[in-house]
Amino acid sequence: MFIKTQCSSWVDGSPKSRARLYREKCAASKDFVNQGGLPRKALFSAVDASLRRLGVEYIDLLQIHSFDYNTPVEEIMEPLHDLVNSDKVRYIGASSVWTYQFAMMQFCAEKNGWTKFISMQNHYNLLCREEREMKKFCNETGVGLIPWAPPCRGYIARPVSSPQPSDRTAVELKMGRILSVGQTETDHAIINRVEEIVQKKGWKMSTVALA
């Protein structure tokens, strides 16, 4: 069984709440020390909690989600290596980081003989993709690429003027504004082009988004 989990985001530590909290608020407050980011304590706590919730002995692939600017690279990569050596994690990967950050972490692990990342997950869809550096770096160094959000949070799976509002739509519109996707004239032109294709072919927009 393949299990992947991500760690980095801060969450409310109360038993009844698992809401993700704003990074800036948590990083600046002593109340959230070791409840997020990528220091050793947070990494081990996140993995142990995931193992308990999933009811398994190990995680096949653990991915860090975003870069931790408050923790030295060495203090990120060594505990990840220790998690692999402890048999709690089989492989490690990363997502949502810049190429230079990913390269720094890989080079740090290689220099110290620690476990290196085997996967990289970045935005890859018709509206948002990074092909100039990350893709080439991963291809040249043997790192697997995992697409994140091929339908781009659903924007490519429905017309720009979709008349079907829902709770999910409201959430995605809010996140879209935060992430600056699906809102520009260029984005709308691409989505409209996808709609033209599906009308000609009789396909679904989600099919073209994943093609």
From TrEMBL:
Assigned protein family: Belongs to the aldo/keto reductase family. Aldo/keto reductase 2 subfamily.
NADP-dependent oxidoreductase domain span: 34-211
Protein name: Aldo/keto reductase, putative
Keyword terms of this UniProt record: NADP, Oxidoreductase
GO molecular function: oxidoreductase activity
SUPFAM superfamilies reported for this sequence: NAD(P)-linked oxidoreductase
Annotated TM spans: none
Source taxon at top rank: Eukaryota
Keyword Oxidoreductase: yes
